[in-house]
Amino acid sequence: PEKTDTSSEAISLSAFTVSAENDKGWMTTQSAVGTRTAKNVMEIPAAVNIMNREMIMDLNATEASQVLKYAAPGVASNATYTDDVNIRGFRSGGAMRDGANRRSFKTNPMYDVERIEVLKGPSAMLLGSNDFLGGAVNFITRKPTEKLTGSVEVTLGQEGFVRGNANVAGPAYRDDEFTLLYRVTVGGAQGGTEKEIETIDQKFIGAGLLMYFGQDKRMSLRYNFYRFVDND
Prior knowledge:
Elements: E1 30-31, E2 39-40, E3 47-51, H1 53-59, H2 65-71, E4 75-77, E5 85-87, E6 90-91, E7 95-97, E8 100-102, E9 113-120, E10 135-141, E11 149-156, E12 162-174, E13 178-192, E14 199-213, E15 219-230
Parallel strand pairs: 7-10
Antiparallel strand pairs: 1-2, 3-9, 4-5, 5-6, 7-8, 9-10, 11-12, 12-13, 13-14, 14-15
């Protein structure tokens, strides 16, 4: 019988560690939709679903319905291109934008949306509208930032579809008693669809100002503006 060589030394591999400690995925821990002030989701006595910027970008979502169907159980869209949804069996008829009720036959533009929050249950009536008996959908737009930041996004699709948006934010003025931050977003989309009679033609411009007063910045004022031309 053949002899087996057992004199070779064992090979020692360096240790390695696999950890997901810093990976939060699409998790967002705070919301303002339930109480008008930012609070931890665990402290809000209602069911809240949050679809943050990372999720919107990963899904490349251009309509709210494309996100809601993945992350908001109990929410069903009545039409693809509107914010008219059913929440827990009750029809909302519209949505909110930065906490303000906005009823429209068109969906909220997504070019400057940072995240989408869904508050379920009759506690949504505290938001100022009887339409939100079953819950409410709130679109949160991007905020001005303390540091200069910018981003450009471009999406190409079939039928000559092109969609893009650019965002820039940063400080405009700052001293010991007053700070002014800004945010500007421009975007648009053009092209065709699978149906020959349908075309896409959108133009968007939005802006935001955030003012802090005093050295401690306890008093603030935020102003948002947008113009959306939708000739789809």
